Amino acid sequence: MRKLPPLGALRTFEAAARRASFKHAADELHVTPTAVSHQIRLLEESLGVKLFERQTRKVRLTPAGHQLFPAVRDGLDGMERAVLAVQRSAQANVATLTSTVAFMARRLAPRAGQFRTAYPDWTLRLDASDQVVDLDHDADAAIRYGSGSYPGLVVEPLFCDRFAPVCSPGLKLASVQDLKHATLVHFEWGAGARDDERAPVWHQWLAHAGVEVTDPQAGLSFTDEIHAVQATIAGQGVGLLSLTLVAEELASGVLVQPFGLTLESFRYDLVYSERAAERPATRLLRDWVKAVFAG
């Protein structure tokens, strides 16, 4: 029989030692700092040695703690790798790709059948989320929309997005001056992008076009980009929209781009974890996404 302390106490010790803080360890483990302190105290009592020197805002390993930490860390890392390997084998031939809700709905979902045609032995799992997804555990790869800076991840640029006024051809806009009397459709950028100059809004485009509108913020405003697209398709107004998201409607004539002026916005990138780079599902998604979207 192995004579080891409880796994929970060892896991708590590893987190506290790695973070040099009971509070940060508690945040990581989703428990209270008091619970972390209690687990560490029980472990110290079990071993009969002191593992941490308690300081005001942080903790420091004792010589005994330094001796124990590498073994516990490496043991937990090995257990994690084994668990992930078992999970992946149980989900063999499933490739998970995550992206924003808007890009998923407008560009990825309509192409899902192409993936199955190219890789009939694989199941494509599409995860739509505007939240950052853990690419070590929850997805094999992602198409992210932003600045292109994703520390710790492999980044392969796909293309830059551009925004321009688009509308139903039934609105019959003849010149930019017609925008003075048109209903403007707005998309409200989230807090993370609102103050970024790469997040185009109507007053920016109108200023570049030299058009003065009494109130450039008036019209129809949506917190969901897909709803702004749908309202524009329905002829409810002129939307300053991502040309990426309305590419199909522009190609078919459902929407028109009456003016040539566009504003460059954020970038679409294929990203994945370095640890997942050689995973079969990641390699397959990389090949497919690059073939479909790189340009």
TrEMBL record:
It comes from the Bacteria. GO terms for molecular function: DNA-binding transcription factor activity; sequence-specific DNA binding. GO terms for biological process: DNA-templated transcription. InterPro entries: LysR-type_TF_proteobact-type, LysR_HTH_N, LysR_subst-bd, WH-like_DNA-bd_sf, WH_DNA-bd_sf. Keywords: DNA-binding, Transcription, Transcription regulation. Residues 5-62 form the HTH lysR-type domain. PANTHER family: GLYCINE CLEAVAGE SYSTEM TRANSCRIPTIONAL ACTIVATOR (PTHR30537:SF26), HTH-TYPE TRANSCRIPTIONAL REGULATOR (PTHR30537). Belongs to the LysR transcriptional regulatory family. This is LysR family transcriptional regulator. The lineage of its organism: Bacteria, Pseudomonadati, Pseudomonadota, Betaproteobacteria, Burkholderiales.
